[in-house]
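Re: the 252-residue chain
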Amino acid sequence: MQVAVAGGTGLVGKFVVAELRAAGHRPVVLARSHGVDLTTGAGLQERLSGSAAVINVTNIVTMRKKAAVDFFSRTTGHLLSAARSDGIEHLVTLSIVGSDEVDLGYYFGKRVQEELVRDGGVPWTVLRATQFFEFPEPLLDNRSPVVVMPRMLTQPVAAQDVAEKLVAHAVQGPSGMAREIAGPDRLDMVDMTRRIVRSQGRRRLVVPVTLPGKVGKAMSAGGLLPRGEYVQGRRTFDDHLASLERATTTGR
């Protein structure tokens, strides 16, 4: 089975591509480095040809509502248009637990994306996931000795667990709004960041900040936690820390 992976060079995308290959499927990466610009649609139709399904894990790093809405509207719109033209049987889209509860700028983009997928004329599945174990790590890559981290109560999940579930959905067929996926433990993002810093032997001062207004209150009070039944990832945050420690020790 040929499956196209939009955003296949990113954090989750790399895991999705690897999982597809391990399961005997043929992944086709949709990304600029593979000749596809999803923001304009350039190269998309040709690259998509022959795929039975698409897994969309494209992303933008922004907290600005306008930028997020623009990005997710354009990339999802181009994917849907190409999928309809090519007779794609299934579009699987990754979204975020609590994106309809917390009025953060980025989440408005995810809301628009979900709406487009629901009304896009292509059989669909939307999988909402909590924040990844890896969420704080990009903020630690700058040279500043101080890292500002928002207070956020979450139930973080391994990106690899999410990738495996996305692939399972792609193979199983459309299911609409799928059961959300979250990790096994509720954790505070500030504490997670400090534990990552210690596990890697870094020198960083992690400064907690509460975002203003209803957004900050919702994030710190559980607005990003799963509600009702959900799928629990099998990897723990301790597993993730152990892998970081091994990588630090071996230099990989």
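The chain has eight helices and twelve strands.
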